[in-house]
Design brief:
Elements lengths: L1 H6 L4 H5 L15 H14 L21 H18 L8 H4 L2 E5 L5 E5 L40 H4 L2 E2 L4 E6 L7 H6 L1 E12 L4 E7 L14 E7 L7 E9 L1 H6 L7 E8 L5 E10 L6
Antiparallel strand pairs: 1-2, 3-10, 4-9, 5-8, 5-10, 6-7, 6-9
Length: about 290
């Protein structure tokens, strides 16, 4: 949770997901807590004996399980918590002026704008203040300042189908950025062109500077996170992307002065095709 809510949520785009405007491809890329832990919980609570992990483990049937509503209220609480920790919301007018229609208690449609829903108190509710143990549960590096083994570049490997563990050496656009530069923009690993079947459970883990992923778990800095898809009720090929924040991670690994880092992808389910990956900067850290 610390990784997803703190390390991987340093910008509005990182937390909410990539910009999605009218005419764009349907799934540009999810935010930090959408795939983990949101999708994880769906998978864990779903029945593995059912053909599609019903009820919670499949998109079409999840609402049949009462825990679905508790789960999504808790996801909403994460937004509330992030705001209390100083997290920024998106200030793009396309998002703020987006609207939805709901039926009120008189069965009349009411138009609700996103800009009117940015604080739970404005909606007539708030969450109880409780202890958050994971705020102090920072991940620990397996090792720091490691000498990295040689590996092919992304251009030599991708596009490819992720059928086995793949490790590539990715060149950074700039090393040893100043404190001011880090405050302005987040260094990001962007895995793009992820093609998968939305009707299947899909997962792969992503590691940085770890030549033996079996030695690292969620408690380790080297595990950046995962891409996870909750199955829908039908088969269809979709293409998306997944990004991971690197600034804090590289500092923890003693790798801020590295020109190149190792990225390892470990498949955990049905195969996916990946077009490529690169490191870039998310400049929405100061504003969105």
């Amino acid at each position: 949770m610390y990784k997803q809510m703190i390390t991987q949520s340093t910008t509005p785009i990182a937390f909410f997901g990539k910009l999605f405007r009218a005419g764009d491809a349907s799934d540009p890329g999810a935010g930090s807590i959408e795939t983990t832990p949101h999708n994880n919980v769906h998978r864990w609570v779903g029945d593995p004996d059912e053909s599609h992990g019903e009820n919670m483990g499949s998109f079409y049937s999840a609402g049949r399980d009462p825990v679905f509503y508790c789960h999504h209220a808790n996801v909403d609480r994460m937004w509330n918590l992030r705001n209390s920790l100083g997290g920024q919301n998106i200030n793009d007018s396309d998002w703020l002026n987006s609207s939805f229609y709901f039926y009120n208690e008189e069965a009349k449609p009411v138009r609700v704008f996103v800009k009117d829903c940015l604080a739970t108190k404005l909606l007539g509710y708030n969450y109880q203040t409780v202890d958050i143990p994971w705020l102090n549960s920072t991940p620990k590096a397996h090792r720091t300042g490691a000498t990295l083994p040689s590996a092919p570049t992304p251009g030599e490997v991708f596009p490819t189908t992720l059928e086995k563990t793949i490790t590539v050496a990715v060149k950074r656009p700039k090393k040893q950025r100043t404190k001011k530069e880090k405050q302005k923009s987040e260094e990001v690993l962007d895995i793009f062109g992820i093609e998968y079947n939305i009707g299947e459970f899909v997962k792969f883990d992503v590691y940085i500077n770890e030549d033996n992923p079996e030695d690292s778990g969620p408690e380790r800095t080297e595990l950046l996170g995962s891409f996870i898809n909750v199955p829908h009720g039908h088969s269809m090929i979709s293409t998306t992307s997944k990004s991971f924040a690197l600034t804090e991670v590289l500092e923890e690994l003693g790798a801020d002065n590295y020109e190149t880092i190792l990225v390892t992808l470990v498949p955990k389910s049905s195969t996916v095709t990946i077009k490529g990956l690169k490191i870039k900067f998310d400049n929405t850290k100061a504003s969105a």
